[in-house]
Write a structure and sequence with these properties.
alpha/beta; 2 domains; 10-stranded mixed β-sheet; two-stranded antiparallel sheet; 12 strands; globular
Length: 361
């Protein structure tokens, strides 16, 4: 099979974790006899430095011509005070919009080898296996009007949280479809006791649920959901929510996996005529400039993102399983990066990538 993939290392540790993810991708290609057509582009701070914009036209053209995109991370401290349109993160938002990826999938699974390494008691987190489905192109991150006006103490900032029925309906339908192949439960998260936007969200989700009578549906307010993720994470199967709530809750879920460096994500759009999902794949962590270049970053989130890419975009389930099983064996064997083993002798980013390659069967 020919796989056309755009590689966007991005900024900070994105370069290092992407290097190891590509190492694993190439190894899988050789092992399973696939042809890789890899191209590379600039995004974020790297693009601002080179081209003056966070998403150059050349990168966008490469993305639109690829089957899938693998992204490292975006963000550099030197742009923290820049105008919103000139920040590295704007490039990612523009790319998501151009690709039409409206659903962010973040699987969260408690790895047996890491149950004692996190801050939550083993008996609470053990058995956790959920997927957070976050709406990605609507809500307060994209709503208008928005902006900052006035001066001094009269300065006023405005952001608008906007959703349409159709936007909610399509993300809800995707979540219920995923639940049908899992444990058949959807938990929808909103703040409908306060926000009219959430009242529409709940109404539409209930309507969509009628199409899936075999799926159990329950609702949680976002503040209660944040608490239940820590108190009873095994109670979740598919967790469905809007953009900002999902951004926050999925990072909280990283605690359940042992480290934010462990989590992959898949941003999905509409299916192409071939049946493949348009996909943007990335670890959920940021660019971590404080450790960039030190070969300390955990690449497993990026490597697991490759597994998600092979499964969702290319339908290569065996190859995806081979990567995930290799990750589990590496961790069980005690190969741990600094975030998982701060008091021992940690593996480097490169050593972790090489160890996963060695375990792929």
């Amino acid at each position: 099979m020919e796989l056309r993939i755009l590689i966007l290392p991005g900024d900070g540790v994105g370069l290092e974790v992407t290097r190891e993810a590509v190492r694993v991708l190439r190894h899988v290609g050789e092992t399973f006899k696939h042809v890789l057509r890899l191209t590379e582009g600039l995004i974020g701070g790297a693009a601002l430095r080179s081209a003056g914009v966070p998403l150059p036209e050349q990168t966008l053209a490469l993305a639109l011509g690829s089957d899938a995109i693998l992204l490292g991370a975006v963000g550099l401290p030197e742009y923290d005070a820049a105008h919103p349109e000139s920040r590295p993160e704007r490039g990612l938002l523009q790319l998501r919009k151009a690709l039409g990826v409206f659903a962010n999938l973040r699987p969260i699974r408690a790895c047996p080898a890491l149950l004692d390494s996190g801050p939550i008691k083993k008996q609470v987190v053990e058995g956790t296996d959920m997927i957070i489905v976050r709406e990605l192109t609507g809500g307060i991150y994209y709503g208008t009007p928005r902006g900052i006006s006035g001066e001094g103490r009269e300065t006023r900032a405005l952001n608008s949280m906007v959703y349409t029925w159709a936007e909610i309906e399509r993300i809800a339908r995707l979540a219920f479809g995923l639940a049908r192949d899992r444990r058949r439960k959807v938990t929808s998260v909103d703040k409908s006791n306060v926000l009219e936007n959430s009242q529409l969200w709940r109404k539409v989700v209930i309507e969509v649920a009628r199409e899936f009578p075999e799926i159990e549906l329950d609702h949680l307010f976002v503040d209660n959901c944040a608490m239940q993720l820590i108190l009873n994470p095994r109670g979740f199967d598919v967790l469905l929510t809007e953009n900002m709530f999902g951004d926050i809750l999925s990072d909280e879920g990283a605690v359940l996996a042992g480290s934010i460096g462990m989590l992959p994500s898949a941003s999905m759009g509409e299916r192409r005529p071939s049946g493949a999902w348009v996909g943007l794949y990335e670890p959920v962590h940021g660019s971590a400039p404080d450790i960039a270049g030190l070969d300390q970053a955990n690449p497993l989130g990026a490597i697991a993102s490759v597994a998600a890419m092979l499964e969702f975009t290319f339908g290569l389930v065996s190859e995806a399983s081979a990567i995930q099983e290799a990750i589990d064996r590496v961790l069980a064997g005690g190969v741990l990066t600094h975030d998982l083993n701060p008091r021992g002798t940690p593996a480097t980013t490169r050593e972790m990538g090489e160890a996963v390659c060695a375990e792929i069967r």
